[in-house]
Design brief:
Strand order of the largest sheet: 6-5-4-9-8-7
Low-confidence stretches: 1-11, 78-82
Helix content: 40-55%
Shape: globular
CATH superfamily of the largest domain: GAF domain
Strand content: 15-25%
Radius of gyration: 19 Å
Largest sheet: 6 strands, antiparallel
CATH class of the largest domain: Alpha Beta
Number of helices: 9
Distance between the termini: 37 Å
Length: 256
């Protein structure tokens, strides 16, 4: 998959790259609160449609991120994805993530909880030709809008779940029109099923399966999810993938 848009002109590649780097440098020089598309257009002198295309490529590549579901964008730390060793949870889970990506052929994500948000620590891409790159290392979003985050949310006590949903209530609609009621239902479904299934919220046409690992205090410590196009995720395969993730989590638990 191309990370930068192509045009028919032979010179368009270098020009597009220069423009992309110009946008990235602008984001890197901006505060953590980010810059809007209008602001980027004003600073760089580029047209808004061009900015949108470049931002899509930068976000997909893990070099930029949306700020809290708003219309502002910021550069990811150091303009790159995480490296093994930056977080002990990555090193702990990496063999399992790689194995899951190899076995399923789909994208695999390592997710942790930070307050009322989920934070993606790692993304491992499978070999299937169509990948759902729903998130990337360093991306934050409301806890529960993705399958990994939902697995973490459902593992919390009821009071914390309600506080988290209430805190994120003004942001949920930005994720496929999710409502507080739907979020609560997903929590209940996850608890009943034993694993999270979330589709068509954070990314249209995608469905993810996620499971959480708990620490000695029975608190969700991390979650692993597998995401694919909806057509690849019928109910029987959802169950199969959940079992693969749970087996992988047991391997991680044995190391801790």
């Amino acid at each position: 998959m191309d990370t930068l848009p192509n045009t028919d002109s032979p010179a368009s590649g270098p020009r597009t790259l220069r423009r992309g780097l110009q946008v990235l440098r602008t984001l890197q020089q901006s505060p953590e609160s980010g810059v809007s598309v209008t602001g980027l257009a004003r600073i760089t002198g580029l047209q808004r449609p061009t900015i949108y295309r470049l931002l899509a490529a930068l976000v997909e590549g893990g070099f930029a991120r949306n700020v809290g579901g708003s219309k502002r964008y910021a550069a990811t730390q150091n303009g790159a994805v995480s490296e093994p060793g930056q977080d002990p949870r990555i090193e702990l889970a990496l063999p399992v993530l790689k194995n899951l990506a190899s076995v399923t052929g789909d994208a695999v994500f390592l997710v942790v909880r930070e307050g009322h948000e989920s934070l993606s620590l790692w993304r491992e891409i499978g070999a299937y030709p169509v990948q759902i790159l729903a998130t990337f290392a360093g991306k934050r979003q409301p806890l529960g809008v993705g399958s990994g985050g939902m697995a973490l949310l459902a593992g919390l006590d009821d009071d914390t779940v309600e506080k988290t949903i209430a805190h994120n209530s003004d942001r949920l609609e930005q994720y496929g029109g999710m409502t507080e009621r739907e979020m609560r239902q997903l929590v209940q479904n996850t608890r009943t099923r034993g694993y999270a299934v979330v589709g068509n919220y954070a990314v249209r046409g995608a469905l993810g399966v996620g499971c959480a690992l708990y620490d000695s205090s029975k608190q969700p410590y991390l979650a692993i999810s597998v995401t694919a196009i909806t057509e690849r995720m019928p109910s029987p395969r959802q169950r199969e993938i959940a079992k693969l993730i749970q087996d992988g989590l047991k391997t991680i638990a044995a190391k801790t």
